[in-house]
Task: inverse folding
């Protein structure tokens, strides 16, 4: 009775009887950023959504294109939910040891009070009495901007971000059947780093005193990407990020896809309870809309 009540009235709910997305679901996926995915990518995404029980239309799980490939991601809360469901289904036990951090001296502590950022974080998951430890290193996961500077979230909450990456690693070790092929948005931020093997075009140094922006380097004078990136990192609300999303309409791929992926990551990172009921969804045609349209979208 409970299961029927959950699914009744939603044309987008993924039912266990389905073997692929319905036309309505595919249309909705196109509106939340999956419009460029191939049928094969959609099939893999469908399998992960159905297997994990996460709702893509509630932004519990999503697919992002990076360097021409589709990456399936969720937040750390999604990993915790999957782990709890798997534990309950198996009637097992699941817990954690204290999270630990260490600096350059290699000494572990259960609280990070240093002014500088930690060099590593360690999380150990306990499943059915077995220990699954994992260590995340700062240099391997820190998110950076195009110019190599650390992003706002990593600069201000480095210990938290590193701990979430370590937790995702530990949970994936403890629940391989349930979490294989899935990555958290915190883990994937390093994939967007301009200095770690990314195929993005980086700004070239000009002979003038003022450095050239990425937009100038690409010959696209309509939008200053450097200023846009700075605004995204400084944004404190989802409303601001929605407005910045519209500015990406003037960009072209691969820059447009990268900037939009950064905005989606910031939406996931923001923790604003007053905004929690709003869908984390943006109009992907990015065409200018009036204030009434924006209010209607927010209300929906």
Result:
């Amino acid at each position: 009775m409970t299961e029927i009540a959950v699914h009744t009235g939603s044309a987008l709910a993924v039912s266990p009887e389905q073997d692929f997305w319905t036309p309505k679901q595919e249309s909705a996926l196109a509106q939340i950023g999956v419009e460029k995915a191939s049928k094969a990518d959609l099939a893999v995404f469908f399998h992960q959504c159905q297997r994990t029980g996460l709702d893509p239309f509630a932004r519990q799980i999503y697919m992002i294109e990076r360097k021409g490939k589709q990456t399936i991601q969720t937040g750390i809360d999604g990993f915790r939910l999957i782990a709890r469901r798997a534990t309950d289904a198996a009637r097992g036990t699941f817990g954690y040891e204290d999270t630990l951090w260490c600096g350059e001296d290699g000494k572990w502590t259960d609280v990070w009070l240093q002014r500088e950022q930690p060099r590593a974080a360690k999380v150990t998951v306990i499943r059915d009495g077995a220990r699954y430890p994992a260590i995340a290193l700062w240099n391997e996961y820190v998110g950076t901007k195009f110019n190599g500077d650390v992003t706002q979230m990593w600069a201000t909450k480095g210990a938290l971000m590193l701990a979430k990456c370590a937790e995702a690693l530990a949970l994936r070790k403890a629940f391989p059947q349930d979490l294989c092929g899935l990555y958290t948005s915190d883990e994937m931020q390093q994939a967007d780093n301009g200095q770690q093997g990314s195929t993005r075009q980086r700004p070239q140094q000009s002979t003038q005193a003022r450095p050239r922006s990425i937009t100038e380097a690409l010959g696209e004078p309509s939008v200053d990407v450097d200023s846009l990136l700075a605004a995204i990192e400084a944004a404190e609300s989802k409303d601001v990020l929605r407005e910045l999303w519209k500015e990406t309409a003037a960009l072209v791929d691969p820059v447009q896809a990268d900037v939009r992926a950064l905005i989606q990551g910031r939406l996931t990172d923001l923790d604003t309870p007053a905004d929690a009921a709003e869908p984390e969804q943006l109009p992907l045609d990015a065409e200018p809309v009036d204030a009434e349209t924006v209010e209607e979208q927010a209300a929906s």
Observations:
- The radius of gyration is 20 Å.
- DSSP finds 14 helices and eight strands in the chain.
